[in-house]
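Note to self: keep these together.
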Amino acid sequence: MPADVSHYGLEFSFTLTLLPGAIIDCLLFQDATFRAIAFEDISDHVGQPDRFVWVELKSPDTRTITRLGDELGLHALALEDAISTHQRPKLEEYDKHVFIATRTVQLWESRMELGETHLFVGSNYVIAIRHDNGAGYQRVVDRLQRRPSGIQAATPYALYLVLDLIVDQFRPVIENMQDRFQSLESQLMSGERSGRAILERLYEMKRDLTLLRDVAEPMQDITQDLIRLHPALTPKELRAYYRDIHDHAVRVSAAIDRLRMSTSDAMQFHLASLSLKQNESVQKLAGWGALLALPTVVFSLYGMNFEFMPELKWTWAYPALLLATGAAVLVLYRRLKRRGWI
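Structure:
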């Protein structure tokens, strides 16, 4: 894969090695420069304190992972985890390296793209294996090139850049979720949409937020474990950077929880609105039923074939009965109308 890279005004042109099932970015940082190296030459630079190797793989196959393990001497259990997806987010320490499995999310082509990134972290290398269809870690390479003064292109800083990028990618996703919620809330309050359709959209959003929470929360534990248990990966000059990642992860989880609560409240509000509308309909039916019941009772009495009935022989009995019944219905109508039953 041809590529041009500019660094300190110098132009580098190189070809990356392609292995079946993987896109490989393999770079060697040394002193103030960097260059591409062959995948087979990684082992020549491992363990050299003045050098740092960065490798990015996208959905590699078993053969590529096996070759990677041979080059770096990676643990077999970690290699097995790196091949398969749906790994539990975790941080495992082995003899010569640390293995980190993280879940990722990003806004890709206007939709939420879930994925995984598996990291092999050694003394002078970071291997990022990602399983997703989104953007890669080119931003990490760019920031390694433009690193602040006094910070080396080494494992602690590269690991920070990867984790920082993973956490930063939550922000556009959450903003997109907030826009979705505001749109649904506006439709809900205006009555533009109601019934099953908007309830299904609210439920879909809550399901997406639950997935998002499951992706975000483990990052807090990973950063905490790095700070407390792995001082070599979080040296003093970078510890504030890792605490910043942890702080961002906490705020991301809090924002997701607030959105989930708001979505649940919106669902409850929608259900309560439907129940209220149903009660109003029942009230109207009951009101009209009462209006119809009054003349029904009166006229059913006069429909009986009794010989002796009130006012049966009176000339004005029939119109008087109609007038009295109509007056009673009118009085009842006004009372029901005043109380909002009809």
